[in-house]
């Protein structure tokens, strides 16, 4: 079956240079965006119950922009002044640049990984004497605590925000040829919003092994997967699939 409509389970891109817009123009398909999940901050009252003293940490591990936002939100609400000597270990350049929203970049000790957590571990290893705080969501990839424990550093996890299922009831009678997912939480949202969902002719695209696994465990067929050697991005995987599907 031909592909004419795609729903991407993420917010719409903020820049006009998004590859999704290029894909839409190139393949003449309609692409919509909708967050299947969203983030909600955990209250300071709930966080205080964990009795973690922010002043006891000399370094912070930041794996996402959400972690940055909620760490500084909580610090402000707790009236904790983050010391200038604090070291920041950022998983990617995107996270590090986002940090500029809260600190004077050139005056802070900021260490940047190459996108994956194992890459960041190599930097953390060089600063094993630090006391690390890991601002986190309620859903943390098992790899992260495993790698930190293996390294033997002193660290604490502090959940500052939650991943919550979004209300998608307005999409109940809307059909798309392809649904695109980037996390198991997206599949969870689909099932909670539409417990009677039948895949039928809908194609499902999934990014990452854990997302592919969530699709199959939910009893659905995963038609499009990324990353792969020939298609490292989701837009490239979609492009390849549409070229074949729309030729028929």
How far the N terminus sits from the C terminus, by CA atoms, comes to 8 Å
Report the helical percentage.
Answer: 25-40%
Name the helix and strand elements from N-terminus to C-terminus, one letter apiece.
Answer: EHEEHEHEHEHEHEEHEHEH
Mean pLDDT: 95
What are the main properties of this structure?
248 residues, alpha/beta, Rossmann fold, six-stranded mixed sheet, five-stranded parallel sheet
Please, could you describe this protein's structure?
This protein is of the alpha/beta class and 248 residues long. The chain has two domains: 5-36 and 166-245, Rossmann fold (3-Layer(aba) Sandwich), CATH 3.40.50.10090; 40-163, Rossmann fold. It is built from nine helices and eleven strands. The chain has helices spanning 19-27, 44-48, 65-77, 93-98, 117-124, 143-151, 184-193, 209-217, 234-245, and strands at residues 5-8, 30-33, 37-41, 59-62, 87-90, 109-112, 131-137, 154-165, 178-181, 203-207, 224-226. A six-stranded mixed sheet has the order 3-8-7-4-5-6. Strand 4 (59-62), helix 3 and strand 5 (87-90) form a beta-alpha-beta unit. The longest helix is centred in the first third of the chain and has 13 residues, at 65-77. The mean pLDDT is 95.
């Amino acid at each position: 079956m031909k592909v004419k409509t795609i729903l991407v389970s993420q917010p719409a891109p903020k820049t006009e240079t998004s590859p999704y817009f290029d894909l839409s123009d190139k393949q003449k398909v309609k692409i919509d965006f909708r967050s299947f999940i969203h983030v909600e901050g955990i209250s300071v009252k709930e966080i205080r119950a964990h009795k973690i003293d922010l002043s006891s940490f000399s370094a912070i591990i930041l794996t996402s922009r959400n972690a940055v936002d909620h760490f500084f939100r909580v610090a402000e609400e707790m009236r904790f002044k983050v010391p200038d000597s604090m070291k920041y270990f950022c998983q990617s350049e995107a996270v590090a640049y986002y940090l500029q929203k809260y600190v004077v970049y050139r005056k802070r000790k900021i260490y940047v990984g190459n996108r994956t957590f194992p890459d960041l571990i190599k930097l953390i290893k060089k600063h094993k004497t630090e006391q690390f705080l890991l601002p986190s969501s309620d859903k943390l990839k098992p790899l992260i605590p495993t790698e930190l424990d293996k390294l033997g550093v002193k660290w604490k996890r502090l959940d500052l925000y939650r991943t919550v299922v979004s209300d998608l009831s307005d999409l109940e009678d809307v059909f798309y040829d392809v649904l695109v997912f980037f996390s198991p939480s997206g599949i969870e949202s689909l099932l909670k919003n539409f417990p009677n969902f039948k895949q039928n002719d809908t194609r499902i695209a999934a990014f990452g092994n854990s997302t592919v696994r969530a699709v199959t465990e939910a009893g659905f067929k995963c038609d499009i997967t990324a990353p792969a050697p020939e298609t490292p991005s989701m837009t490239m995987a979609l492009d390849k699939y549409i070229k074949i599907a729309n030729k028929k």
